[in-house]
Amino acid sequence: MEEKIIDKSEIGPLLSKLKESYQVIAPVRRDGDISFERIDSADEVVLEFSNTKKVPKSVFFPQEEVMFVYSRSESGTEIKEPPLEQAASLLFGVRPCDARSFSLLDMVFDSEDYKDIYYIRRREGAKVIGLACTSPRQTCFCTTVGGGPFNHDGMDLLLVDLGGKYLAEPVTDYGEELTEDFPAAADADKQKRDQMRENAEKCMKPIVADLDDLKNKLDTGFESDFWDELHTKCIGCATCTYLCPTCHCFDIYEEEEDNNSGYRLRLWDSCSLPLFTLHTSGHNPRPSTKERVRQRIMHKFNYFVTNFNEFGCVGCGRCVQNCPVNLDIRDVISKIAVSS
Amino acid sequence: MANPYLPVPMTIGNIITETDARDIKTFELSFRDESDVDRFDYVCGQFAEIGIFGAGECPIGIASSPMDKGTVQFTVKRAGRVTRSLHSCEEGMEIHIRGPYGNGFPMEDMEGSNVVVIGGGFAFTTLRSLTKFILHTENRDRFGDLTVIYGARSPGDLIYKYDLSEWANRDDIDLFVTVDKGDETWTGREGFVPTVTEEVAPSSENAYTIVCGPPVMIRFTIPILTELGFKPDRIINSLEMRMKCGIGKCGRCNIGDKFVCKDGPVFTYEQLMNMPQEY
Questions:
Q1: Nearest chain A Cα to B55, which residue?
Q2: In terms of domains, do B137 and B203 share one?
Q3: Global pTM?
Q4: Which among A46, A112, A116, B160 would be 20 to 30 A from B200, CA to CA?
């Protein structure tokens, strides 16, 4: 598909046009941070940012979501699903790691056997316009897990910031349609893009040389000694899982409004927390941080690979950057990969 | 697109208090909406999420036989918030269920074979479903010999006494009921399930065995079954795990790459030997 040039002054009008048919979600400054929010006007959008602290997956999988409302009467209980009264979402300015996480979440929630309609109804018809990472953070490691700072996975269109303008790489028909009125990129623009991509990739040298090796080590490593060491720093705060773009675990919970009505909802939950697997009998199959850290690593780098043929990690580095005890998942996987 | 998280309404029918301690009850539920009867088409060994609005949901194995159309039975021990709430329910009240979930027992594979059922304590519920299914007139000829070994701590802890006395009078089932320790009225067998299994010594020839019970019972029974010649792929277990969604999304009931809710709860001993020991 033909690569185009979009001048930065055109972004505002483009967003305003998109707002006519979509609920546009883009990075904005909110509560001292930058986060993905539904925008009211194009002026709010901030495209000079490394990445958001919170993940855009919440657009499709909110941290808290009402599943249905129930109300009892003489004739029985009425159950009502809350209608989703919103236009399809268009996410603007999503980093390649986060865009890729949508493809991974699709595998979980939109699987052949059971369809998670709460996720699917928000995801259906959604569009994703990505923003290439020209200067990755020190904590980024997408290239280690099969991604890249200029990758297209999960996007309709990728924008590359060339300075005063964006080079736009359409990925889907929608991306092509969106850019059809813009001028074609010149060879010099493409060369500049290639150079930027090379630089970005170079500063993120993969930290595990052989990914198959990592998976294989874990295949036989459930009882390995390395788990005894790796978990000791972890305080079980679950920050890593709440900031993770691919974590999909949730709890189902109920709130009563009065004796005859209430609602059932779901909330993000975390394998780092002891209650996650606690049986009513008091038995807990994952009784300490050792088993819980192991579960998190195994899920992302072994179980997910077995079930979906992809790593359950996109290398965004949020867990590295925000861990209060500096437990670095990159160290963990590299230690495992080189273990004997 | 059907929403797998939406429960269906049920009416509580007959409630049987199973144990002397009154902590285990069997609830017979019927569908309030006729169209749900066919949608809830289950096999032995599957489970459902039982929900009581205001209290929550919990996964419970189905205790009735799929041959008993129109009603579904669950035998529930009073243990946590939902089960306490259920135990205080009365006949005629409305509750909700989702399901059926899980793989269930490999009933078709077992056709033509002898079946040895070994159960301990309160884990006998889905085994009762299986036993009733095999004993049904339409099914009995399709299976070989049926041996059932069932034990509880004391006579007062035995569940389904009404079924046990009926089965004891049939000649197409070999039933061995045992208690760890009898009381002054008990005239039956005494001894732990593994010991009784050793005494009964069911033949492994052309046979499957299904073993459900407390972990300690399973640990001591499996070596005996192995000694009797049962191969790991013919020893069938059913597992319990904390669950929420029941459909492999919420992420907590996995053992390795398998979800107990949808890949299980029924696993062969051969499968379990190749899975992490994390349950």
A1: A254
A2: yes
A3: 0.94
A4: B160
